[in-house]
Specification:
This protein is mainly β and 263 residues long. Helices cover 4% and strands 56% of the residues. It folds into two domains: 166 residues, Pnp Oxidase, Chain A (Roll), CATH 2.30.110; 89 residues, no CATH class.
């Protein structure tokens, strides 16, 4: 009956704890959902087969296919971030302080003072503060003895540039500390997340317009994904492909990859 169904949309994807798997920091029981994705924008679901050929001394004998992978794409960056966060070992902190490098153009007054946008971090023996004079479309680096730092009564930082003229333009780059909304640290080594997956699809029978639910179940899958940040695209936050590699189960030679149930 599966061949008469028209798949409409995915209503839910449930990733559950498989037998024998361990997720660090969690005491999840076998079968307990670790992620539920409701109404994802699912564009394609493909059971990918890999061709295996056999040859003898006279040449090609035959070709068989091995199905071991499910490929599908979900356009829902906010939901998938939790999954991507675990796979890549991201450490996400909120309302923490961070040190970043900033750049700004400065214009000095008649006394050679220019206000800085932030408090620079100055290290002993090395300022980590670089000041350039913009002259004839060129940036000329000034040595540390050509300027000094000072503060106003209300705590705002200034740089006093010696031998400067009013309205001279300078370019400064330096590190400073800010309070960040969030800090994400991506780890080099990725996790291999194993889960049981159930995909629920709404379908309609083309013969009589009866509505059905198709459930695709895999006992054990390995999940991998990339995170793509869309720049200047108002239509989406990200375009994130998820690769689900099914781990065949069973004792027989031709193992089970997935089970499709129509209800």
């Amino acid at each position: 009956m599966l061949e008469t169904l028209r798949m409409q949309e995915v209503s839910q994807i449930v990733l559950s704890m498989p037998e024998g798997a361990i997720i660090p920091g969690k005491d999840s029981l076998v079968g307990e959902p670790i992620m539920i994705i409701n109404n994802p924008s699912l564009s394609n679901l493909t059971f990918t087969s890999k061709a295996v050929t056999a040859h003898d001394a006279q040449g090609h004998i035959g070709t068989a296919g091995i199905t071991n992978q499910l490929d599908f794409i979900i356009n829902e960056g906010s939901i998938l971030y939790a999954l991507w966060n675990y796979i890549y070992g991201v450490i996400d902190k909120e309302h923490e302080t961070a040190i970043i490098r900033g750049n700004e153009y400065l214009t000095v007054d008649k006394n050679g003072y220019a206000f800085l946008g932030a408090k620079p971090i100055l290290y002993t023996g090395h300022y980590n503060f670089y000041l350039y004079k913009v002259e004839d479309n060129q940036n000329i680096l000034l040595s540390n003895d050509k300027y000094e730092f000072c503060t106003t009564e209300d705590g705002q930082w200034l740089v006093h540039i010696f031998d400067s003229n009013e309205a001279d333009i300078y370019f400064a780059t330096y590190h400073y500390e800010i309070e960040a909304s969030s800090i994400s640290t991506i780890k080099q080594i990725h996790n291999n997340i194993f889960a049981t997956i159930d995909i629920y699809i709404d379908a309609v029978d083309l013969k009589n317009d009866d509505k059905h639910i198709v459930i695709i179940h895999c006992d054990k899958v390995q999940i991998d994904t990339n995170m793509v940040l869309s720049i200047n695209d108002s239509s989406k936050a990200s375009f994130t492909p998820i690769r689900i590699k099914s781990v065949p189960g069973g004792d027989e030679f031709n193992k089970d990859v997935a089970t499709v149930v129509v209800i």
